[in-house]
Design brief:
The complex is a heterodimer of chains A (136) and B (558).
Chain A (H helix, E strand, L loop, with lengths): L7 E5 L8 H12 L3 E4 L6 H10 L4 E6 L4 H14 L6 E6 L5 H7 L4 E3 L5 H11 L6
Parallel strand pairs in A: 1-2, 1-3, 3-4, 4-5
Chain B lengths: L3 H24 L29 H5 L22 E6 L4 H13 L4 E4 L3 H5 L22 H7 L10 E3 L5 H14 L9 E3 L3 H8 L6 H18 L3 E2 L1 E4 L1 H5 L4 H21 L4 H4 L3 E7 L3 H22 L12 E5 L11 H15 L4 E3 L12 H16 L14 H24 L2 H6 L2 H18 L28 H14 L3 H16 L5 H9 L4 H12 L9
Parallel strand pairs in B: 1-2, 1-9, 2-3, 3-4, 4-5, 6-7, 7-8, 8-9
Helix pairs in contact in B: 3-5, 6-20, 10-12, 10-15, 12-13, 12-15, 13-14, 19-20, 19-21
The chains are: A alpha/beta (136), B alpha/beta (558).
């Protein structure tokens, strides 16, 4: 493992949903935890998210969705990463999801799903434990 | 409000009482190190006449219906007429939402309020690649006038007012509503309602975007001008603090940024050459009602007083109606929790009560499941009943502004007004709200406040019941409304049918005409109405705007 490198994270908002309070708070929490953070801004297509992730050479993508389109958008990001041979990038998601969608998202390759009320430290610790800088 | 002698006596008594208080706390310390509102405003242990000795009743508080309207815009307030119970609704197809509207009207709701899905809000048709997976999810899908006709079928739109939460394409959806009414033989001078049409707060907080700030202001000013002349019962902008607060602002930021947005719209209309009293009476406002009960009540009272002062002193309005800050309120979605969702009924009740004690003109109460999905019928009915219980059982609507004169509430009202005016001054110094937005100023102020609050919740300095305190290990799942996944396909098929059955030459012609008009300075509303009447779709029109005015991209600051 390359200990010199810090975790690089892309915080991304796929789809038309404009709720970015959570994504921007998470971006700050990652930054404060010492990660290198890229924030996509709003209204990205899955294609744009994946392109940014590859271009920025990130170790992880944190997807945020609060308007119900996660079942299309999240798996689509994982699918595109595979197509581009970039599926070493860990994908996790946060937002509002019906309970029964969570196992489906995990089956589709979303490694972890965070729902409202999760403390920031818990999310940061999960990244530290599950994401290796440099994708090693 | 008090004479000098009695204030001196009160000061003596307060000194004695504070000593007594301190003695008690030596034995049993206060339960918190610091008492503060949800916006982190410090709160004292007691408020007395000494806290309001600088306030002149006639100048600061006054009577309802009398400048500066702190106690209410109408002399009679709820003694005359209760607030409008206006539940925001929209789901799935136009037909689905039409059924929900009929249900709500039958249950005693007195105004309609439409929630659109994300593609409609952003100005995309359902068949756009950007709309994949979003159709009907968080509101109703509207692609053309055909959908608008179905949405309001059988509803008495000549008697009931309709609010539409729509921003970048507001002019188009409003044009569809006008066209729908006219096709039913109802004159545009008769219909009443509101379009949100507040792009400044979109850039600041809610973030549905289409074109950059300057052309957005042109489209908004076109609607204000057109409404003033042609649709006199319509509120053409609902200047909204709701989303600013949901994005994590403090109460004072909500107050300040909303009124600063209002100032920018007034200035734009004046630049257009409109007389202030011709349009100002049709400006309306929309606030959040959050959980901090007294701070919210004070915010509403301060807002009324501030707006009337701004309109009178800054813009020299003469018509009394120009000075009125009339507002809709929605209880705070961001205060609801996915955990133990039945607790949300209680939160919403408290927030609704604050809105009523703050003198709102209309109110949406959130449903207990609104944090998870679009409300079920049962949950929406409980939320409406909450308002009916406040209105008709609690007795709080028996007298006007029952908290007026409260030492605490009057002090808070004045403090919040002063702090909000400081923010407005800062924004003025930057060159106004459009310039401030271009510098990301309000966006970053809100992001700071939101992050601070989250850290306070995580450290348990602020309590969220069921989330960081009184947590249940086992959550009881509640029923959630699911939107038909096949809807997207059906809506696209329907959209194609609409396109096949219209006069496509006519559509092409009118879209070209719209493109030319957009490059000039004429008011675009008449040609937008012409376009929607020819069944041009929403995106066919927004594509013209994007082409002429450019596309706004999120700067992505955090």
């Amino acid at each position: 493992m390359n200990k010199e490198r810090r975790v690089r994270v892309l915080v991304a908002k796929p789809g038309l949903d404009g709720h970015d309070r959570g994504a921007r708070i998470i971006a700050r929490a990652y930054r404060d935890a010492g990660f290198e953070v890229v924030y996509s801004g709003l209204h990205q297509t899955p294609e744009e998210v994946v392109q940014a992730a590859i271009q920025e050479d990130v170790d992880m993508i944190g997807l945020s969705s609060l308007a119900g389109a996660h079942m299309y958008l999240f798996p689509r990001v994982v699918e595109l990463l595979k197509e581009k041979n970039a599926d070493d990038i860990v994908v996790c998601g946060g937002g509002i999801f019906p309970e029964e969608d969570i196992p489906k998202l995990k089956n589709a390759g979303i490694k972890e799903v965070f729902t409202p009320g999760t403390p920031l430290t818990e999310i940061v610790n999960w990244v530290k434990e599950n994401v290796n800088p440099g994708g090693v | 409000m008090f004479n000098k002698k009695s204030l001196e006596d009160i000061a003596d008594e307060e000194k004695k009482w504070q000593k007594l208080f301190n003695e008690y706390t030596l034995k049993a310390p206060e339960r918190l190190k610091r008492f503060s509102t949800v916006s982190d405003r410090p709160i004292k242990n007691i408020y007395t006449p000494l806290d309001i000795d600088d306030l002149d009743y006639s100048k600061e508080t006054a009577f309802p219906g009398i400048y500066p309207f702190t106690r209410g815009v109408q002399p009679t307030m709820y003694r005359g007429r209760l607030w409008t119970m206006r539940m925001f609704a929209g789901l799935g197809s136009a037909k689905d939402t039409n059924e929900r509207f009929h249900l709500l009207v039958n249950e005693g709701q007195t105004g309609l309020s439409t929630a659109f899905d994300m593609p409609t809000l952003m100005g995309y048709d359902t068949d756009s690649p950007r709309s994949r997976g979003e159709c009907g999810k968080c509101g109703v899908a509207i692609d053309s006038l055909k959908d608008m006709e179905i949405l309001f079928a059988g509803l008495p739109i000549d008697k009931i007012t309709t609010s539409m939460t729509i921003n970048p394409p507001a002019s188009i959806l409003w044009a569809m509503y006008i066209a729908m009414a006219e096709n039913r033989g109802i004159d545009r001078r008769i219909i009443g309602g509101t379009i949100q049409n507040d792009m400044l707060k979109e850039f600041i907080a809610q973030k549905t975007f289409m074109c950059p700030p300057k052309p957005s202001m042109r489209l908004i000013t076109d609607t204000v001008e057109f409404g003033t002349k042609e649709v006199p019962r319509w509120n053409t902008i609902s200047i909204s603090g709701y989303h600013i607060r949901e994005a994590g602002s403090t109460a004072v930021q909500e107050l300040a940024f909303t009124l600063a947005d209002g100032i920018a719209y007034v200035e734009a209309a004046l630049e257009r050459g409109l007389d202030v009293d011709a349009f100002a009476p049709r400006l309306s406002f929309f606030f959040n009602s959050h959980l901090d009960f007294f701070e919210e009540i004070a915010k509403f009272r301060a807002a009324r007083r501030m707006w009337s002062r701004i309109m009178k002193e800054r813009f020299k309005a003469k018509d009394e109606r120009s000075l009125w800050l009339r507002f809709h309120t929605q209880t705070a979605g961001c205060s609801l929790t996915a955990q133990q969702p039945y607790n949300n009924v209680i939160r919403t009740s408290l927030e609704a009560l604050a809105a009523v004690l703050g003198g709102t003109q209309s109110l949406h109460t959130n449903s207990l499941d609104e944090v998870l999905a679009i409300p079920t019928e049962e949950a929406a009915t409980i939320a409406l009943r909450t308002q009916q219980i406040i209105a008709e059982e609690s007795g709080v609507a028996n007298t006007i502004d029952p908290l007026g004169g409260s030492f605490f509430v009057e002090r808070l009202t004045t403090d919040m007004e002063e702090e909000a005016f400081e923010y407005i001054k800062k924004i003025d110094d930057m060159g106004g709200m459009v310039a401030a937005i271009e510098r990301n100023y309000p966006q970053m102020e809100i992001a700071d406040a939101a992050y601070q609050y989250q850290l306070q919740v995580d450290s348990q300095e602020k309590t969220v019941v069921g989330v960081n305190k009184y947590v249940n290990e086992e959550e009881i799942p509640i029923e959630i409304l699911q939107i038909d996944e096949e809807l997207e396909e059906k809506q696209i098929k329907w959209l194609n049918e609409v396109k096949e059955n219209r006069d496509n030459n006519k559509v092409k012609e009118v879209l070209e005409k719209l493109g030319e008009a957009s490059q000039g300075n004429s008011n675009l509303m008449p040609v937008i109405i012409e376009a929607v009447k020819a069944y041009a779709t929403e995106q066919e029109i927004t594509d013209v705007f994007r082409d002429v005015f450019g596309v706004y991209r999120d700067p992505g600051v955090y």
